[in-house]
Amino acid sequence: MHNRRKIWVLALLAVFTLAACAGGAPAVTVGGTPISVSRYQNRLMTYTDYYCRLYGVYAAPEEFAADIIEQLIIEELSRQAVEANGWDLYTPEINAVMSKFRHSLRALGYSSVTAWLQDIGRSEKSYRQEQAVRVMAGQAVDATEAETLAYYEENKDRYGEPQRVRARHILLEDEAAAAALIASLRERDEAAFAAAAREYSLDPGSAKNGGDLGEFTRGQTVAPFEEAAFSQALGEISPEPVQTEFGYHIILVTGQTAAVPAPYAEMREQVRVDLLERKKQAAAEAFFAELRAKAGVVYGEGYGIYASG
């Protein structure tokens, strides 16, 4: 962990150095407005620091480079659209978005959206400008009864009782060690797996319980872990180590509960809300693409590799 922290600090120092050398050169220009390399690097550094503190893991700034460039483009397109159209940033719709997001941030220990935005290097005004564009883009969105029913049929497992899996896992730092342990456990029973978890797992929360994670549904674990756990057969050990930002996992599925969809009549209103949200997101992405095409986006030297699409 000490070595990871050292590498992380050196990576951030490198970001500072690059920013200092770049001066005011643009990383990208949006509608004639330059976004300097120093602004980009500062945002990248701030977000990387936030991510590493939040998850307690090392992450290289380069992992977030493309996302940060894209986010800065979205922010500038939003600013230009809001100023050109004179849109209000404090409408009931935007305030509702802020309130909903503030509620979701409580799980991360934040009492306000502003505090979270400060931690990732962004202003509340910038965030409200982006939400104004998204709200305007979704104003005309609607969903017919046929569309709502079709969406329900395609997503039945999301309504009612979801599919559940119970699993044990062993977390290791080294991939080769994880692969070797998988080979030694493959023909052994659950008790042997639990004993190995207590002895070797680096996850303090579950190791003492033999690696038992209890039951969980989709969306409650990181994506690679979820994909493996929900695709394995009952009683099966993962055929190879599953890599996440936490290390290498060996997974044993110990229980499976099938999804039990709720009747459409009971879920119709929630299904419609979910469908409308998805359609609004699609409308916003299409609107941003239109704004982007009209404004023009020019990447600075060396930054074209981060162009989306």
What do you see in this structure?
With 309 residues, the protein is of the alpha+beta class. The chain folds into 2 domains: 2-141 and 274-306, Triger factor/SurA peptide-binding fold, CATH 1.10.4030; 163-257, Roll (Chitinase A, domain 3). Helices cover 56% and strands 13% of the residues. The protein is built from 12 helices and 7 strands. The chain has helices spanning 2-22, 37-55, 65-85, 92-105, 113-119, 124-137, 145-154, 175-185, 190-200, 204-207, 223-231, 264-295; strands at residues 26-30, 33-36, 164-172, 212-216, 242-244, 247-257, 297-299. The protein has a 4-stranded antiparallel β-sheet, with helices on both faces. A 3-stranded antiparallel β-sheet has the order 2-1-7. Helix 1 (2-22) runs antiparallel to helix 2 and helix 3 (65-85) packs across helix 6 (124-137). 24% of the residues are buried. The model is unreliable at 1-22 (pLDDT under 50).
